[in-house]
Structure formats: structure tokens, C-alpha cells
Sequence to fold (251 residues):
Amino acid sequence: MSGQFANANMLLACIMVAGTNCQRYTLRKVAIEMKTTKSMSALEELGRVRLSKTFFFRDFLYSEISNFYGMPNIPEDIDLAIEAGSKLCQELLEPLQDTFGRIAIRSAYRSPTINDYGNKNRLNCASNESNFAAHIWDRRDQDGFMGATACIVVPWFAGRYEAGADWRQLAWWIHDHLPYSSLYFFPKLAAFNIQWHEKPVRRIDSYVAPKGCLTRPGMENHTGNHCEWYVDFPRFVATNPSGVGGNSSLR
Fold:
């Protein structure tokens, strides 16, 4: 491939094609050279890839580990990272944002190198194997399934949480409305990991009291409606999450 371009290591192009029935994007890489991850222009192009109506890949690349230790946080399998990230954004993050207003991304994509460094140095990262198809978007899990995780804060709820609201209110709302795979809640700001997965588990855990597993398949509380937990929440807003017709190159 390198002979086809004068400077192939600086070329990355993505085409966004509107889906049909599900109105989602399919992204096809036109050309990419082996050393793309070392090209600034290619990284800029990756950052411009539009994953959904309001989210671009750049929104998910920031990492404190990457920033502090000077280690690039760049996908190795770009196609897989884009596909998994698009599902996360379109099926989970956009509906949350449409309903509650702007959401804040705390931590999202981690390269295998970044995650491994964080794990080995006790920087709050689980092992690579347990993060495949989770924070490591560009690796399938041991069963061959695709997935993606982001740690987010819902500011609308964070204010309520600081005033004494129970984290389970938001957990049950998500359980009843969105096709999540796993949720894990944390004490600060009621931040939580939210995962999209090809084979969703639909399990909720928490480090906030009551700690442990809130629900999982087989538990009595897993089915049915839990609306008594969130009676004063905004009405669920389901709009077009993919933003079909948008421009993937907008900054």
C-alpha cells in the first residue's frame, strides 16, 4: 500500500454511510498505512470521525495516564474501535444526553498499552483481558464479541446525588430504558461505567452503599418495571441518535 501514496503514513480517510432500518452509521476505512498511529494528521482524522449525532472519536481519547506519563492513547484496530464506539454512543450515550442534558465523559477508550500500564501500576485499571470489549474498544472479548465502555457523569443527576439522592434511581432508570450490558457506580459525582456489548449481560454493581450487585439475570428484581424509583425524572426522549446526514469532518 505504501507505494500507492507519496506519504502513505499520513493518510486516513473514513466514509460514513447512513444505515437503512436502524438509521446508524457504518464506517469503512478507505486507506490506512501500518504506521498511521505515528502520524499526527492521521490522529486528527480519527478525532474527526463522527460516532453519533453529537459525539466524535476525539471526545473519548483523553486519558490521565496518557497525559501524565506521555503515552499515546490511540487504537490499534481503528475499524473495530469506531464500530464499537458508535454503538456505545448511538444506543446509550445519545439517549441519556437527549433525556438529561449534556453528559460528561470521565474515562472511555484505553489502548491496550495504556490499560496494561494502568493495571500494572495500580492506577485503577483492570487487566487487559477483563477490559477487552470494555474500555479497550479495539479488542473483542474472549468469546469473540465486540463492546465498548465509558465512565460518565450525568450532571443533572450529580446535583441531586450531592443533595442526597440515591444512585439506584438512575440505575433503575437506565435498566428500564436502555440496552446496556453493565453498569458500575462510583462514589464521586455518581459517576458510572456504562457498557454496550454485542451480548449484553444487563448487570448493575456499585461501590456506593448499598455496595455490591443491585441486579443481574436470575435475581427477582431483574424483570418488570421500576418506575417508582424515578417518578420525578424527565420524560424519556428517543431521537435519532446517529445524526444521519451529518458531516464526519466537523470539528
About this structure: Confidence is low (pLDDT under 50) at residues 1-36, 245-251. The chain has two domains: 1-49, 52-229.
